[in-house]
UniProtKB/TrEMBL annotation:
This is histidine kinase. It is an enzyme of class 2 (transferase). One of its GO terms (molecular function) is phosphorelay sensor kinase activity. It comes from Pseudosporangium ferrugineum. CDD domains: HAMP, HATPase, HisKA. Residues 193-246 form the HAMP domain. The keyword Signal does not apply. PANTHER family: SENSOR HISTIDINE KINASE TRCS, SENSOR HISTIDINE KINASE YKOH. It catalyses: ATP + protein L-histidine = ADP + protein N-phospho-L-histidine. Pfam families: HAMP (PF00672), HATPase_c (PF02518), HisKA (PF00512). GO terms for cellular component: plasma membrane. InterPro entries: HAMP_dom, HATPase_C_sf, HATPase_dom, His_kinase_dom, HisK_dim/P_dom, HisK_dim/P_sf, Sig_transdc_His_kin-like_C, TCS_sensor_his_kinase.
Length: 461
C-alpha cells in the first residue's frame, strides 16, 4: 500500500479533524478560564460585601483591632456632605473617587460598582450606614428623630485570588489542549484508514485488471454503506465491459471468418482464370467476381451500420409512420417475380419517434428474413397496442425452435437449416433489427406462428 501524500483523503481528513479539535478545545479552554475567573471573582465580591460591613462597624465603634484588619485594604468613605476618608492606597485617586455613587439606603444587598482607577477598571463593594448623634449605627429609622448622619463605605475587591485560580489551571490547559488534539488526530487517522481500506482494495484490484483477465472483480465489503455500493457498481461496470469486449472479440473473429470466404472465392476464381488462359472464360469469371464483390459490399455495409448503431448518441426524435414504411416495402415486393406473396394490414395509427432510414432498414431486414424462409406467404400487420406501436411479420415456413428464438438475434448467427451461404446473408440482419429496436426504446421478439413470427414493439409518438 503506497504511503499517503498530503493530497490523500486520509491526510486531509486527519488534518481537518485536528484543526476542528484544536479550535473546539481552544474555545473550551477560553470559556473555562472565563467561567473560573468569573466564579472566583464573584466569591471575592461576596466576601467583600461582608468585609465592607465590618469596616463600617469598626469605624463607627472605633474598634482599633477591627480597623487594623483593613490596614492593607483599599477603601474610601464619605458622608452626606461629601467629607472623604480613604486608605493610604487610594489617596492619590480621591479626585476620581469623590463622586462615586452611593447605594440606596433601602438596598438590602447593594451590588458592586466598577469604575476606572488609574487607567484600569476597579471593582468596589459598598454599604451605607446611618449614625446617631452619639456615633452609633442606627439599624432602622422609626419615629420622629433627628436625621442621623449617613456614611457610605467602598471597599475595593482584589482580583488576586481569581487570577491565582487562572494561573493554577493554565499549565493544565496548555498541556491538555495539544494532547487532546493529537488524540483526536490519531483517532481520525485510524478511522479514516479503516474506512478507506476497502477503497484501496478496489483501486489495487482495478489496477491489476488487464484486457487478458477481465473476469476478475473487485472485493465487495460487507459494510452496507456507500463503499459497498461503489464496489457493486464497479463490478457491474466490469461485467458490462467484459461482455462488450467478449462480443467485440467474437464480432471480429466472425467478421474475419465471413470475409475470408468471399475473398478466397475471388482469389481462387482469378487464379483459375489466369491458369486456364482462354478469354472465353472471362464472362464466367467476372460473374463470380461480381457476386463475391457484392457479398463483400453487403457484409461491409452491415458491419458499418452496426458500428454506427453502437456509437450513436441520443435517441432520434423524428416522427415516423411505421405503417407507411411497411406498406411501401410490401408494395415493392408485390411487384417482384418472387415465389412469396406479401400482404400488409394496418389496424390503426402507427406513428413513432425515430430515424426514418434506420426504421426502413429494420423493416427491410425482417421482410428479407421472412422471404428467405417462407413457403408462399408473408403477412405484415401494423397498429397501436397499449401505448406502443406493434409491427408483426409472420411467414408460413418451418418456424423457429424455441431454443433458438433468442440466439438468432446474435451477430453472425445462422440456424443449421439456413447456413448455406448462397441462400442467406452473413447472419447480421436480425442483429441489426434488434440493435435498431433497442436504440429506439423498443424490443423485438421471435415467436411461433404458422411458421415464424417476429413482433416489434416501439413507443408510440
Amino acid at each position: 500500500m503506497p504511503r499517503p501524500g498530503l493530497a490523500s483523503i486520509r491526510v486531509r481528513t486527519t488534518l481537518a479533524a485536528a484543526a476542528a479539535a484544536a479550535v473546539c478545545f481552544g474555545a473550551g479552554a477560553l470559556w473555562l478560564r472565563h467561567e473560573l475567573y468569573a466564579n472566583r471573582f464573584e466569591a471575592s465580591v461576596e466576601q467583600g460585601t461582608g468585609d465592607v460591613r465590618r469596616l463600617a462597624t469598626a469605624h463607627a465603634t472605633r474598634d482599633e483591632n477591627g480597623l487594623r484588619e483593613f490596614a492593607h485594604e483599599r477603601w474610601i468613605a464619605f458622608n452626606a456632605d461629601r467629607t472623604v476618608r480613604a486608605s493610604a492606597g487610594l489617596e492619590p485617586y480621591l479626585g476620581d473617587l469623590r463622586w462615586l455613587p452611593g447605594p440606596e439606603p433601602s438596598a438590602e444587598r447593594p451590588g458592586p460598582v466598577t469604575m476606572p482607577l488609574g487607567g484600569s477598571p476597579a471593582t468596589f463593594v459598598a454599604v451605607t450606614v446611618f449614625l446617631d448623634p452619639h456615633g452609633r449605627i442606627v439599624e432602622a429609622l422609626t419615629g420622629p428623630v433627628a436625621e442621623p448622619s449617613r456614611v457610605t463605605y467602598f471597599l475595593q475587591v482584589s482580583p488576586a485570588e481569581a487570577k491565582a485560580a487562572i494561573r493554577a489551571v493554565d499549565p493544565v490547559l496548555a498541556a491538555a489542549q495539544p494532547a487532546a488534539t493529537m488524540l483526536v488526530a490519531a483517532v481520525a487517522w485510524f478511522v479514516a484508514g479503516r474506512a478507506l481500506r476497502p477503497v484501496e482494495a478496489v483501486r489495487a484490484e482495478l489496477a491489476a485488471i488487464t484486457s487478458a483477465d477481465l473476469h476478475r472483480r473487485v472485493p465487495v465489503p460487507a459494510t452496507g454503506d456507500e463503499l459497498e455500493r461503489l464496489a457493486v457498481t464497479t463490478n457491474a461496470t466490469l461485467d458490462r465491459l467484459d461482455d462488450a469486449i467478449a462480443r467485440q472479440r467474437r464480432f471480429a473473429g466472425d467478421a474475419a471468418h465471413e470475409l475470408r470466404s468471399p475473398l478466397a472465392t475471388l482469389r481462387n476464381t482469378v487464379e483459375v482464370a489466369r491458369a486456364s488462359g482462354p478469354a472465353a472464360e472471362l464472362p464466367a469469371v467476372l460473374d463470380v467476381v461480381l457476386a463475391s464483390t457484392r457479398r463483400l459490399q453487403s457484409l461491409t455495409d452491415d458491419l458499418l451500420l452496426l458500428a454506427r448503431l453502437e456509437s450513436s448518441g441520443a435517441r432520434p426524435q423524428d416522427r415516423v409512420d411505421l405503417a407507411e414504411i411497411a406498406q411501401e416495402q410490401v408494395a415493392e415486393r408485390r411487384h417482384g417475380t418472387g415465389r412469396v406473396t406479401f400482404t400488409a394490414t394496418v389496424t390503426g395509427p402507427a406513428v413513432v419517434r425515430g430515424d426514418q432510414g434506420q426504421l426502413e432498414r429494420l423493416v427491410h431486414n425482417l421482410l428479407d428474413n421472412a422471404n428467405r424462409h417462407a413457403r408462399t406467404t408473408v403477412t405484415v400487420t401494423t397498429g397501436p397496442d397499449s401505448g406502443d406501436v406493434v409491427l408483426t411479420v409472420t411467414d408460413d415456413g418451418d418456424g423457429i425452435a424455441e431454443a433458438d428464438r433468442e440466439r438468432i438475434f446474435e451477430r453472425f448467427t445462422r440456424l443449421d437449416e439456413a447456413r448455406t451461404r448462397d441462400s442467406g446473408g452473413a447472419g447480421l440482419g436480425l442483429a441489426i433489427v434488434r440493435d435498431i429496436a433497442v436504440r429506439h426504446g423498443g424490443r423485438v421478439e421471435a415467436g411461433a406462428g404458422p411458421g415464424a413470427r417476429f413482433t416489434l414493439k416501439l413507443p408510440a409518438a
